């Protein structure tokens, strides 16, 4: 897409002029620790998005478990278990190169989200892994996040998207199946039909 340079925002002053001053509440809501009210959000959240950056680019990865799966160790530290996945480990590779991370917590039915920025380290301490036992399975590692800033995001985005509205849910059949996607991306060399048929049992059997 070709854009007219005359209409591109290219400096901070122009951007500030475009949007105006930040609201007082948007400044006061940011703190450098996990306040008890913010802790309540984290402990109620069964889902979060983990954002990282590294030499290979950016990554935003979903993380989910029963509510409270991200442990507030203290007001400056979060613990995030890394559960079984596809072993791409994009997020973890990024953390090794650049420890900066961002987390976005979502609580079902709640419009506000919680944002945490910080720096992460990867631990495989057996005692730490044991704290996250699930059905007799341990995570491969735990991200120890040093908290830098925490603040909530207002509900506008979730209200506009109707994310929690049951009437807005899209049937899975309305989108291409994962097997179909893999088959088409590989010009039919990947057996997508078999993949789709076996997927539900494989996911259920490998959650942890």
Automatic annotation (TrEMBL):
Cleaved signal peptide residues: none
Residue span(s) of domain Pyridoxamine 5'-phosphate oxidase N-terminal: 35-154
Gene3D superfamilies per UniProt: Electron Transport, Fmn-binding Protein, Chain A
The protein, known as: Pyridoxamine 5'-phosphate oxidase family protein
Organism (species): Achromobacter veterisilvae
């Amino acid at each position: 897409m070709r854009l007219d340079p005359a209409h591109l925002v290219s400096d901070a002053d122009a951007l500030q002029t475009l949007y105006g001053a930040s609201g007082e509440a948007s400044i006061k809501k940011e703190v450098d620790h996990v306040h008890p009210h913010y802790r309540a959000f984290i402990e109620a959240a069964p889902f979060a998005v983990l954002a990282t950056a590294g030499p290979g680019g950016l990554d935003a990865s979903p993380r989910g478990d029963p509510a409270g799966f991200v442990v507030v160790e203290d007001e400056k530290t979060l613990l995030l278990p890394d559960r079984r996945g596809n072993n791409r480990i994009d997020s973890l590779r990024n953390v090794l190169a650049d420890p900066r991370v961002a987390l976005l917590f979502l609580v079902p039915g709640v419009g506000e989200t919680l944002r945490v920025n910080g720096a992460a380290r990867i631990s495989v301490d057996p005692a730490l892994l044991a704290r996250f036992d699930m059905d007799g399975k341990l995570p491969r590692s735990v991200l120890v996040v040093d908290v830098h800033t925490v603040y909530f995001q207002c509900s506008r985005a979730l209200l506009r998207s109707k994310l929690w509205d049951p009437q807005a849910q899209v049937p899975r059949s309305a989108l291409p199946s994962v097997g179909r996607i893999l088959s088409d991306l590989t010009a039919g060399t990947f057996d997508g039909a078999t993949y789709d048929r076996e997927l539900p049992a494989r996911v259920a059997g490998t959650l942890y």
